[in-house]
Design goal:
Blueprint: H1 2-20, E1 39-48, E2 53-55, E3 67-70, E4 74-78, E5 83-91, E6 96-104, H2 113-122, E7 125-128, E8 132-137, E9 142-148
Antiparallel strand pairs: 1-2, 1-3, 1-9, 3-4, 4-5, 5-6, 7-8, 8-9
């Protein structure tokens, strides 16, 4: 009887663990975010961790501005005035990310549009859950704070 109980408990735990694993290729939205692929974000603040200062991007009235969408190894978004696309390399185990090859135009940028470009290219690491994404740069002294879009 004890052997059957131990085997049943082991099987249940194994099934729970296997059921909780998701990959970037899953068609279902995971309860806990396990990858950035197929996610969309809206920048809510530039954060300085040393002073605790949160600076909201301007213009604030633009709902389409300061967005970021992750796809398979590529990302696209909108600054204050322009659309852009680029590449990213990511390591989920150590939470490192490198954004590169951003193609877009800084012409006509308003508010923090040019800073958004520069900061994205300087990103080194990240933390995230299903509602919030932090892209760290400047040796984690600063980060871009995003909310799920």
């Amino acid at each position: 009887m004890k052997k059957i109980l131990k085997l049943t408990v082991f099987t249940v735990v194994l099934l729970m663990l296997a059921g909780g694993l998701t990959t970037c290729k899953s068609n279902e939205k995971p309860l806990k975010l396990t990858c950035l692929e197929d996610t969309e974000w809206k920048l809510t603040a530039f954060v300085d961790t040393q002073t605790g200062t949160l600076t909201e991007p301007e213009p604030k009235s633009c709902n389409e501005c300061y967005t970021l969408k992750f796809e398979t190894n590529t990302l696209c978004g909108v600054t204050s005035s322009n659309r852009f696309c680029g590449n990213y390399d990511i390591d989920y185990e150590v939470h490192s990310i490198r954004i590169s090859n951003i193609a877009g135009d800084e012409k006509g940028e308003q508010g923090y549009g040019s800073q958004y470009y520069r900061d994205l290219l300087a990103v080194q690491s990240f933390s995230y859950n299903k509602n919030e994404l932090k892209l760290f740069y400047n040796d984690k002294k600063d980060y871009l704070l995003f909310k799920s879009n």
